[in-house]
Amino acid sequence: MSEHHGHSHDLSGVDAPERVARVVWISVIAVGVLALLGAILLWPSGDRSSDTSFMDTNVQKAEVLLVEVLPCTGTTEADGIDCRWITISVGDQDDRGVLEQSVDGIGARLEEGDRILVSTADLGNGTTVYGFHDYQRGAPLLLLLVIFVIAVLLLGRWRGLGAVAGLGASLVVLIVFMLPSLLDGNSPIVVAIVGSVLIAYIAIFLAHGVNVASAVALLSTFLSLTLTGVLGWLFVELAKFTGYSDENSYYLDVLGLDIDARGVILAGIVIGSLGVLDDVTVTQVSAVWQLRRTNPDGAWTDIYRPAMAIGRDHVSSTVNTLFLAYAGASLPLLLLFTQARQSTGAIVGKEVVAVEVVRSLVGSIGLVASVPISTALAAVVVGAGNGRKSR
Question: What's the pTM value of the predicted model, to 2 decimals?
């Protein structure tokens, strides 16, 4: 999914030679047409049937009304084994139910007023058994989304509105096309590439406008993403990943879905890299455009060198951000292995950790490569000649 890290990029106001601009637009349009054809061929059928009986499919909203500490089921007060008996109001009909929790148990500790989700099971004799499923988190997540949108709009104004619209469109591509297409059994890497190209188009053009600079940023993103995909495929093969380090892969198998688990890892690498890649490519193209304004008569090499200096500073911090993001996501797992007193080599060698290592390093290599790719391409475009203007 595309994400931008608060930079303000102005990709307008500098003209490129018509011949060069024409080549850029032809290339961008050609890639876009291929992506659209790919989306049509890979479009999900919508006809998926699978066994979901082992999953919690009957889930209802509920509210905790009362919490009492009483003897657990099958015990008496004399046994001294207490449980938390939780009275809940379930669904729109205000049905009453009871949950039982261990006093000393780990996990969710429900309190009066908590809004939760409960799974239900009908025993067939008029009795319904309830089980705690999860908390209702819609309200805080919606509040956070509103704060995020307001922050982006306050800083970015109309450009921020384009960025928010691009984010929304990216989610639509992911939810409407990519995930259902993967569930249809289509090649994960092909779906990831097609979907990523569509997301890049939408995100960059909406956030930065339809101009030559945005087109150059798109081409740079495509080239960097291709390199990332090739490296990802190579090291997924060399590392002999099975794709079953995550328990969710087993659930997909139980559902009877024909999904390439190793391909899903590779698709995740491509999609995860896109958000950082388009940020770097847009930043570098913006730097080149700004430098061209200050040096309108210089050769492309005069623009390339200072723009690369900017890119080196940017990429050094972004690579660290990428690594820490993956480390943070895997922190509970790393803590578990560390507590088990396993060596660093043994920890890193486990597939569940090695996948994150490959994901992080491949993404970082693609990120590093995107700096010279986008800088050189942009510098060549704006420095290819003077006097012939095009937007």
Answer: 0.72
